[in-house]
Amino acid sequence: MPNANQAPVKCLIVDDEPMARDVIRRYIEKVPTLQMTAEFGNAIDAMVFLQKESTDLIFLDIQMPHLSGTDFVKSLRNLPKVIFTTAYKEYALEGFELDVVDYLLKPIRFERFLRAVNKAFPQKSVQLSNQGAGEKKAGSGFIYLKSDRKMIKVMLDDILYIESARDYLKVFTRNNSIATRQTISSLEAMLSDSEFIRVHRSYIVSIKKIDSFTHETVEIGKKEIPIGKFYLNSFLKMQQT
Fold first, then answer.
1. Using the 8-state DSSP alphabet, how is residue 36 labeled?
2. What 8-state DSSP symbol labels residue 108?
3. How far is residue 79's CA from residue 69's CA, in Å, rounded to a whole number?
4. From CA 4, how far away is CA 9, in angstroms rounded?
5. Which of 55, 80, 89, 127 could connect to 12 by a Cys-Cys bridge, CB 3.0–4.6 Å?
6. Are 145 and 154 in contact (CB under 8 A)?
7. Residue extent(s) of CATH 2.40.50.1020 domains in the chain
């Protein structure tokens, strides 16, 4: 738990992708020394906010419409600590030239997120590390998936498995399936390691929904899902814990 006399780190998220903001928001909620203050889908709205309010740490996407993350950083007089979040590794050098704390490449894993925050605020790293140790025990109750121009609430306990099909995903639940244009890695980053495991480059399964398995397949209900060779060792280790 954070020290009662120690103010939490106020965090701002600026990213034009709702799914990306959702991942960072959930990570912030897992760390008791961090406090979410606001989130914006563009840098201009964030700039207006910072003219009235202060923040300690910005999780900032680089490639955004109207004003890029790097131009946004250059425009600020009193620059808070900044952690860039982006899907494009070619921006890394420019980011570090702006003296930002860290550069996170999407999809962002919680452990990597935690290391970046520890780098920004090393005096709070003990509390953050303790929270990280409990990551595998924590789980969110739901996620939102964009499908047919709507954000659909999906309860994690209802998910059986997730299948990647070219440029979209199918999330299979107890009652139906939901198609969403998203990469399987980005959705994997939103899910708790204690509840879901990737068993193939095209499949993620709910651990507690597994009915049986061999070294080649997992069975959930009547669905037989392949286990990729690259994922077999981590899957078997999970079964032993």
1. E
2. P
3. 13
4. 13
5. 55
6. yes
7. 142-240
Question: What DSSP string describes 166-220?
Answer: TTEEEEEESS-EEEE---HHHHHTTS-TTTEEEEETTEEEEGGG--EE-SSEEEE
Round the CA-based radius of gyration of the chain to a whole number and report it. 19
Q: What end-to-end distance do the CA atoms of the chain give, in Å?
A: 26
Q: Where does CATH 3.40.50.2300 sit in the chain?
A: 9-137
CATH architecture of 142-240: Beta Barrel (2.40)
82 has which bridge partners?
A: 58
Chain CA centroid to CA 124, Å: 21
Q: How far is CA 129 from the centre of its chain?
A: 18
Closest listed residue to residue 139, CA positions, set 45, 67, 213, 206: 206
What pTM did the predictor assign?
0.58
- Name the burial class of residue 157, with classes exposed (0-12), middle (13-18) and buried (19+) by CB atoms within 10 angstroms of its CB: middle
**What homologous superfamily is domain 9-137 in, according to CATH?**
Response regulator (3.40.50.2300)
Cβ-contact 60, 14 below 8 angstroms: yes
Label residue 8 exposed, middle or buried (CB < 10 Å: 0-12, 13-18, 19+).
middle
Amino acid at 152: I
- Tens of pLDDT along 97-145? 778 888 888 888 888 888 888 888 877 653 443 343 333 333 458 887 8
For tokens 């899910």, name the residue: 191
